Write the structure tokens for this entry.
Amino acid sequence: MELEYTQQLLQDQEYLALVKRLEQQERQRLFCRHGLSHFLDVARIAWIITLEQIEQKGMNVEHLAQYKDQIYLTALLHDLGRLAEYNHIRSHDHAQEGVNIAWKFLKRIGYPEHKAREIVNAIKEHSGDEKSNYDLSNIIQMADNRSRNCFFCGAQEQCYWSEERRNKTILW
Ligand SMILES: [Fe+2]
């Protein structure tokens, strides 16, 4: 089945409820939001980047269907640490809280542990500086930045993103 584990995650009622709660909490947020649409934007853009790399550079990706599943899972889980931030749960370490949430769901859907570890690393690293390789963390990070339409945003003046990080075009 295509996107086997992703489909399981999207049927998990607790996961869906968490995403809904996050969307609710960000309803008044001036800056970028982190709901299901954002997660799917990141998943799809990350997948496009992967396909382009395969086509242009002959990048060799073993088990492509499984990799697609891994990309989607990472994207669907990458920002759940925001909930901890908004709810002041261990507020000193919301990145770690996001990792804990991701582990819980990956375990519950029976996702292989060594693959889950790669997802968790990508979640930990996704908000740092972009690197030049195309591993899972960097693809997610690139997709995360490119999913934002900074050129159309009304909060540009107040936004903390660096000029470099801002997405000023739909091309990349
Ligand atoms: Fe994100």
Notes: The chain is about 60% helix and 0% strand. The chain has one domain: 4-24+32-152. The pocket of fe (ii) ion is lined by residues 34, 38, 42, 78-79, 144 (CB under 6 Å). The longest helix spans residues 36-57.
